[in-house]
Design a protein that fits this description.
- By secondary structure, this protein is of the alpha/beta class.
- The protein is 41% helix and 15% strand.
- The strands form three sheets. The protein has a four-stranded parallel sheet with strand order 6-5-7-8, with helices on both faces. Strands 1-4 form a two-stranded antiparallel sheet. It has a two-stranded antiparallel ribbon with strand order 2-3.
- The longest helix has 16 residues, at 170-185.
Length: 243
């Protein structure tokens, strides 16, 4: 899939005399990279290479999967048009601004996964009003920081929905969410407050049923205390990772 995407961009260059580059590509934040090489090893498109003092990202090869971003220990990478600041602003806007109980954030891969929920709406299939959707290029874009910000700001549960055909496969989504659950456990947040799945466009019934079932599950849980939320906030501030 990655080679086909790169070939398509090259074909555009050869056929039209111009380069077609996706607007959502990873970029380096100057002065942070220490050349650890983690992103180089993990990039499925092989779009990142080591330079003399920092990594070099090829914007033609990069297809914006964003796998590299949350795994960077120096937070030296970001994604154009879906930056850390933008994602956390959306999280806080929903978790702090919505007056409802419980507050559930659904992170959805913006094309197929979100499209499945939208298709359900077109077919007059409603879902729980407690769900608030944030579209992301892939669940790979998310790290523990985003999950912590959500619960600190007032979220009661989080759902992660990835495209079934994504390069960030179902087992990778589960592994990422397991890491999130482990991180939340340090603050006494139950792992059942996180749920993940993959979907295809026609599977809107599966997606929306998951929404309803998850909301019902969270409603039965003991509410998260404000003390726990404040503890998470202090942790984020102490780690200096507040966007």
């Amino acid at each position: 899939m990655e080679s086909m995407a790169a070939a398509s961009k090259v074909a555009t260059f050869l056929g039209k005399g111009e380069i077609s580059v996706s607007p959502e590509v990873a970029y380096l934040i100057p002065g942070r990279c220490d050349l650890c090489g983690i992103c180089v090893d993990q990039c499925p498109a092989k779009a990142i290479n080591k330079g003399k003092n920092e990594v070099i990202i090829n914007p033609i090869s990069c297809h914006g999967c964003s796998i590299c971003i949350p795994i960077c220990p120096k937070e030296a990478l970001d994604l154009r048009h879906t930056t850390e600041e933008q994602i956390i602003a959306q999280i806080k806007g929903i978790a702090e601004g919505e007056d409802m109980t419980p507050k559930i954030i659904a992170f959805m891969q913006k094309a197929t996964a979100y499209g499945s929920a939208d298709l359900g709406g077109q077919n007059r299939r409603s879902y729980s009003p407690e769900i608030r959707i944030i579209r992301v290029p892939s669940i790979a874009r998310l790290g523990i920081k985003h999950v912590l910000h959500a619960f600190a700001a007032g979220a009661d549960g989080i759902i992660f929905v990835e495209d079934d055909d994504s390069i960030f496969k179902e087992d990778m989504v589960r592994e990422r969410v397991m890491l999130f659950k482990k991180g939340l456990g340090k603050f006494g947040i139950q792992p059942l407050r996180l749920q993940s799945t993959t979907t295809t466009l026609p599977q809107y019934e599966k997606t929306l049923t998951l929404f309803d079932d998850f909301v019902g599950r969270v409603k039965k849980m003991t509410p998260i205390t404000q003390e726990k939320r404040e503890e998470i906030k202090k942790y984020l501030e102490g780690k200096k990772i507040v966007a």
